[in-house]
Structures are given as C-alpha cells and as structure tokens.
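$ ./design --mode recover --in tokens.txt
reading tokens...
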C-alpha cells in the first residue's frame, strides 16, 4: 500500500475511491443523486453554486453547444449561481505552447455571451487572472501522493500514450488543479460526464483531507463543501461529420462561429451509408444515426420519430434536413455572435469584470485556508 502523507486520515484508500467512482454501481448511485439534485434545483436553486468551464484549445462547436452550453444556460435560468472558468493555464498541461490563446479565449467568451450566459448572474474568468486560485495548489498538493495522481484515469492515459515524452509536472498535478478550480469558489455542484467522475472524486478527497488535517474547531462547518456531480440523465454523444470523434485536426467539426454555407458544406460531406431507408440504430448505423440525432436535437424531437418520418429519403434527404435544422437552431446564436464580434471592448470588459469577481472570491477562500492552517501573521 502506498504511504499516505503524514497526518492524513481517510475512510478508505483514495485510489479505491477513484476506481469506485466509475464502477457501474457508483454510476447508478450518481445518476440517482443527480435526479434528486434536479428536484432540489426546481425548489431552491439558491442552495447550489456551480463551477464549469472549458480549455481554450480551439473554437466551440456543436458538441459543446448540445453537450454543455445548453445545460449551463438552463441552470443559470433556474437561478443557480455559476462560475465558468476559461482554463488557459490548462492549455499547457499537454502542449509545448499556447498557440493563438488570446483569440481563443475571447472566442469562448463571445460564444458564452451569444448563448445567453448573463455576466451579471454568471462569473466568467480565466485561470491566469486569479492568483489566489492557483496558490491553493500548494496546500492541496501536500494532501495527495504521486502514486495517487498517477492512478488518475486522465493522467494514466496520458502517461501510457506519451511514449518517450516525459510527463510535465503540470499534467501530473492536473487533477489537483481541477480541485482548486472547484474549491476556490466553494462550488457544491459540477456538471460532468461519467468520464470526469474520477476528477470530481479527487476534489472530494482533497476537501475531506484538508478538513481532517486543518479543519475548523467545529466539524459541522467544514472549510470546503463536498462537491456533487450533476450527470445528465439524457446525455447524447455527437460524432464528427466523418463518423469519428469530433476533432478540429480532422476537419470534422462544425464550429458555432461558422456561416450557414460553411455548415452546409460540411454536412454535405458527412458520412452515411448505401441504405436509402433511414433508421435510428446507433450501434448498427452510427454515422447515419449521428445525423438523425443532430436533427432531433435541433428540433427537440425523438430520433426514432425523425428517422421514421425520413423513411426512404436516403442520405441526401437526411443531410438536407440536418442542414436546415442546424442552421435554423444556430441562427440566433450566430446573429448575436456577430454583434459581439463587432463589440470587442464589451467582451473584454465582461472578462475583466469576471476576473475581478473571481479574484475576490478566491482571496476570501485563501484567507479561510490560511486561517485553518494557522498561517495568518
């Protein structure tokens, strides 16, 4: 058994916690708890503070739109206090440079605002602009071991795929950086996919260990809340237009900032098959079903109903439907986005204001941490 940091007590080995978080039984429990949280959100959303975000490694696309942005907007409109981190520091966890990062950061913020994210209700900020958030890494890193970090699924996967390339210290500590993202604002709700559950469990481990080692005199008032996962009960996965995972390098992504004509051209090249009769069969006909799913999402319909209505329309008929449905769905977003692109000063001010707000929250949390650690001099 790996030696734990001195003074750390747990209710089980952290590695077992992380493995358990992705087990079938745990996933069922998490889904059940997510349904309970949804019911609580409908009654009293003020009980929750949410943290979510994106790495600025490229433009946002339709996978982000349907996979996370619509849900963020929904939760904002319910009244959940929300923090969205543009994780610019995390760009360099697995890259040699930052690329056109300023352009990408501003593009993300522009898409958030075009989506309807309200900067008066949602705090949008960048990692690099909140020193106190990043300072939390130091005490947090003292609560985890090298072995535990290397067993994290994301870190383990990167290590296995790296070949002879040495792993950076930043990549190794990536799970703890994510913990700092969540804990700096004391978020108690994090929308995640099931593949991200180990990261959230690592956050809970860090929060628990901090309170066990340094916590306040009253155990009923921990320094950090236990952040909970909000899993979507009807999440769908959208593939690229070639039927593979969406990737800008593959040229199979429809970005939110693309024009209607660009969208049409990409969909026209989309992979289908030789069977003219359209059915919804994600296992047997993944590429066709992906397009059916996209049309259904755009029209808020059931994919089986969409496929049945298309019948013998063939791939051409399917692509025409998807093109029309997607362009209609994105038209308001694109119109608002064009207005925002023409107002770069406003977009920048939104980010400056969000950075200032996040910095104040992070400083208050860092004060709590210093007090708990008896480091107020």
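writing sequence...
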């Amino acid at each position: 058994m790996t030696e734990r940091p001195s003074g750390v007590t747990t209710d089980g080995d952290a590695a077992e916690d992380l493995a358990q978080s992705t087990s079938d039984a745990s996933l069922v429990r998490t889904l059940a708890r997510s349904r309970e949280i949804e019911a609580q959100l409908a009654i009293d959303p003020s009980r929750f503070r949410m943290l979510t975000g994106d790495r600025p490694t490229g433009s946002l696309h339709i996978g982000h739109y349907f996979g996370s942005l619509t849900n963020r907007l929904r939760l904002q409109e319910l009244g959940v206090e929300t923090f969205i981190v543009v994780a610019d520091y995390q760009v360099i966890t697995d890259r040699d440079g930052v690329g056109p990062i300023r352009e990408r950061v501003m593009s993300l913020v522009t898409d958030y605002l075009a989506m309807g994210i309200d900067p008066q209700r949602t705090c949008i900020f960048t990692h690099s602009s909140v020193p106190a958030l990043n300072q939390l890494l130091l005490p947090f890193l003292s609560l985890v071991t090298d072995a535990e970090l290397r067993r994290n699924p994301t870190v383990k996967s990167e290590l296995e795929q790296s070949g002879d390339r040495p792993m950076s210290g930043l990549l190794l500590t990536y799970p703890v950086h994510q913990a700092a993202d969540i804990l700096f604002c004391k978020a108690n709700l994090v929308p995640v996919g099931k593949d991200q559950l180990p990261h959230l469990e690592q956050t809970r481990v860090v929060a628990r260990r901090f309170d066990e080692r340094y916590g306040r005199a009253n155990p009923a008032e921990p320094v950090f809340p236990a952040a909970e996962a909000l899993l979507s009960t009807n999440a769908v996965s959208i593939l690229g237009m070639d039927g593979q995972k969406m990737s800008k390098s593959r040229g199979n992504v429809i970005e939110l900032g693309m024009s209607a004509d660009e969208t049409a051209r990409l969909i026209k090249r989309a992979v289908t098959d030789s069977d003219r009769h359209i059915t919804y069969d994600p296992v047997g006909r993944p590429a066709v079903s992906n397009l059916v799913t996209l049309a259904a999402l755009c029209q808020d319909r059931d994919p089986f109903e969409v496929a049945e209505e298309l019948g013998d329309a063939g791939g051409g008929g399917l692509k025409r439907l998807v093109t029309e449905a997607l362009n209609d769905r994105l038209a308001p977003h694109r119109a608002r986005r064009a207005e925002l692109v023409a107002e770069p000063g406003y977009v920048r001010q939104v980010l400056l204001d969000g950075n200032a707000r996040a910095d104040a929250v992070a400083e208050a949390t860092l004060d709590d941490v210093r007090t708990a650690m008896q480091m107020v001099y």
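exit 0
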